[in-house]
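Morning!

This is the sequence you dropped in the shared folder:
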Amino acid sequence: MIIAIPNKGRLSQPSIEMLKEAGIKIEGEERRLIASTNNENIKILFARAKDIPEYVYMNAAQAGITGMDIVENSQFDVDVVMKLGFGKAKLVVAAPKKSDIQRIEDLNGKRVATEFVNITKKYFAERGINIRIVEVSGACENAPAIGIAEAIVDLTTTGTTLRMNGLEVIDEIMETEAVLIANKDLTDDFHLKALKTALQSVINARGMVYLMMNVHESRLEDVKRIAPGLKGPTVMRVDADGILAVHVVIHEDQLLEVVEELKRIGARDILILPIQRLIY
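The structure's back. Tokens below.
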């Protein structure tokens, strides 16, 4: 299986890191067009994020990681297998703060600069607003300042870049994030299913910790109440004096209060371990 991932940009390094967390490590220091991994069944294709949907559609790569915005704009018929939880952003319509454009309707007959041509066409057409698209690639926020468009359609995460360029959001088109896509003919492919399971296990483990403790059997119900875990704790008898070893998975946000309550009911030898992957 070949997995295409971005060769640069905001999704590149997080994609490499997530694959690594899932047990897929890219071999060699030099980033080649196609790289081997520690799994003989998997190779990595480094490509432009915007080209990945086409490569997957053409089966040059059987799977890929790219942004949902890029998938929708590409219009290639690929299977969106799962969201990956990173690279989150919003695709917005923005215009100069000091302008007469306050609503999207004010853009009727105006120019809109974007690299998301297909999404932009669809968005305005659905609302019956006639615009002229100015296709750009990169630095879209400069378009109004240099006079080639009255507004833009672009990605934003914090809005800082827009504000720095005197722009404000007048409407939100979509929320986007990194997604795993696959060729539609490979829905039941074993290696694709294994990849999905591995990536999902990384997502499941985020923010979770493994909690272990010794506690007297008389307080087991209290432990279940304080730290019920995912499907209840795992319980093992330690010795004949009624001491149990209790293991449970909880969210790290609960840790502060949970540990103190467990101490209060007599739990001891408490260990807290990070979780790398979690498969339900």
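Headline: Residues 190-205 form the longest helix (16 residues).

More detail when I'm at my desk.
O.
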